[in-house]
Design goal:
The structure holds 2 protein chains of 2 kinds. Chain A is mainly α. The longest helix of chain A has 29 residues, at 5-33. In chain A, 78% of the residues lie in helices and 0% in strands. Chain A has 2 helices and no strands. Chain A has helices at 5-33, 40-62. Chain B is elongated. Chain B is built from 5 helices and no strands. Chain B has helices at residues 7-22, 26-53, 59-85, 95-113, 121-159. The chains are: A mainly alpha, B mainly alpha.
Chain lengths: 67, 161
C-alpha cells in the first residue's frame, strides 16, 4: 500500500487540531448552556420530600367542610 | 464565540452543541418545577383554610376551590413519582405537560368559584399563577435551548469551508 506523505501529514495535522480544539469547545459549550452532569441523588431527595408533602396535602383537599 | 472552521472541528462542535443542549439538566428543571408547584399548592391551600377560619369564604366555595386544587395536587404527585424513576435524562416526562394542563384548568375554575373581592382570592390565584408560570417557563426554556442549539449547529456547519 502506497502512503501519500502529504495526505498523511494533513491527516495528522487535522487530528492534532481536533484534539487541541475539543477541550476548548467543550468548555465553551458548558459555559454557554451551563451544562454539567445531572445530580440524580439531589433530585431524588427533593422529589421524595415533595411526595411526602403531597401525600399530606391530597387527603386534606379531599375533605369537605360544612356548606 | 469563535470556532476553528476546520470541517471536522466544526462538526464536532455542532454535535457537542446538540448533545449538551439536549442534556441541559431537564430532569433537574422538571424537579424544580414540581417542587415549586408543591410549595405553591400548599400556600394556596393554607390561604384558603385561613380565610375559611376567619369566615371570609363560605364552606361551599372552600369545597369548590379544594376540588379545583385536587387535580393539580394529583398531577403533581404523578409527575414527581415519575421523576423518581425517570431514566431518560434527555427529556422531561410527559407528566409535566399534564401538570401544566391541570394548572391552567385549576386557575380558571378557581377564578370562577371565587367572586371578585373574596378575601384571599388574589393570593390564591397568585400562587397558582406563579406555579403555572414556573412550569410553562421551564418548558419553554428547555425547548428554546434545543432550538438554539440546532440553529447554532446549522450556522456553524454552513460556515464550514
Amino acid at each position: 500500500m502506497k502512503i501519500d506523505a502529504q495526505a498523511l501529514g494533513q491527516y495528522l495535522d487535522l487530528i492534532t487540531r481536533i484534539a487541541a480544539a475539543a477541550p476548548a469547545v467543550i468548555a465553551q459549550v458548558q459555559e454557554l448552556f451551563g451544562a454539567h452532569p445531572t445530580d440524580i441523588p439531589a433530585i431524588q431527595a427533593q422529589a421524595r420530600a415533595d411526595l411526602a408533602a403531597l401525600a399530606a396535602l391530597i387527603p386534606h383537599l379531599q375533605e369537605r367542610v360544612p356548606e | 464565540m469563535k470556532f476553528r472552521h476546520q470541517p471536522s472541528v466544526v462538526l464536532l462542535a455542532a454535535l457537542l452543541f446538540v448533545a449538551c443542549a439536549a442534556k441541559t439538566k431537564p430532569l433537574e428543571v422538571a424537579a424544580q418545577a414540581t417542587h415549586s408547584v408543591t410549595v405553591m399548592l400548599k400556600l394556596a391551600s393554607d390561604t384558603l383554610d385561613d380565610q375559611y377560619a376567619r369566615g371570609g369564604i363560605p364552606g361551599s366555595v372552600v369545597n369548590e376551590v379544594r376540588a379545583a386544587l385536587l387535580p393539580v395536587a394529583q398531577a403533581t404527585q404523578s409527575a414527581v413519582a415519575v421523576l423518581l424513576i425517570w431514566t431518560d435524562v434527555d427529556t422531561a416526562p410527559p407528566e409535566m405537560a399534564a401538570l401544566l394542563t391541570a394548572l391552567s384548568q385549576s386557575v380558571e375554575r378557581i377564578a370562577a368559584a371565587l367572586p371578585s373581592g373574596t378575601p384571599g382570592r388574589g393570593a390564591i390565584l397568585a400562587h397558582l399563577s406563579s406555579a403555572t408560570a414556573v412550569v410553562r417557563a421551564i418548558a419553554n426554556l428547555f425547548v428554546g435551548h434545543q432550538a438554539e442549539a440546532i440553529v447554532t449547529a446549522r450556522q456553524m456547519l454552513a460556515e464550514a469551508p
